Amino acid sequence: MARLLPLGDAAWTVEFGDAIDPALHARVMGFARALDAAALPGVIEAVPTFRSCTVHFDPLADGADTLGVRLLEIAAFAPAAALAGRRWRIPVLFGDEAGPDLADMAAHCGRSERDVAETMTACVFRVYMLGFMPGFPYMGGLPDTLAMPRLATPRKAVPARSLAVTGTLCAVYPFASPGGWRLLGRTPVELFDARLASPALFAPGDEVMWQAVDAAEFARIETEDAAGRLDRAQFLVAAEAPWPR
User: Fold this and answer.
1) CATH number of the domain that 106 lies in?
2) What local confidence, expressed as pLDDT, does residue 66 receive?
């Protein structure tokens, strides 16, 4: 059963559970889809997360309590909706300056750096939500065997496009930023471009696999992207193509 939690005087949070799980996320997305279809008056925006959905509304409109009741009704009857997003295979340069924490992760797990990188490229990561900064994808799918906590002392500056992990989550920093996640590599592909109609490369429901590249290929792709010559469609995987499950 969903819980209704007030978030200030202009938002309700509808909470469906307390885990990062595809089935739970499908309930969240099903609720968000049903809410959109309901077109309730006064609702400004719905923000789905791993396990909940926050609904922002006009605080000057009448009926905040009535809206809360209606949200719980929608949550009770909305069917789960596992999004069928796009599938991406994104290049990554692993280790050394691009991934300064790869060696520590390998030592922590009792494996070689190459083995850790190969495990990363064999996993399918699911985008659950975007947050923290524009285009920052929170992705599930990191094996428990590679799970590590955040750094005890966060870095003051994480380079843009750094591939990072913590716990069983994976992400890429679209921009340079402070951060405490473990850095395993970098992608040459920009994750957020405000000039595009859809600025963020990834969206909730997308699936991502990493493809290891060497320094020369990284530099080539990075140069093409910076010059505006890179076609991001080349990194999409067709729906009918083989894909690990």
Assistant:
1) 2.40.100.10
2) 92
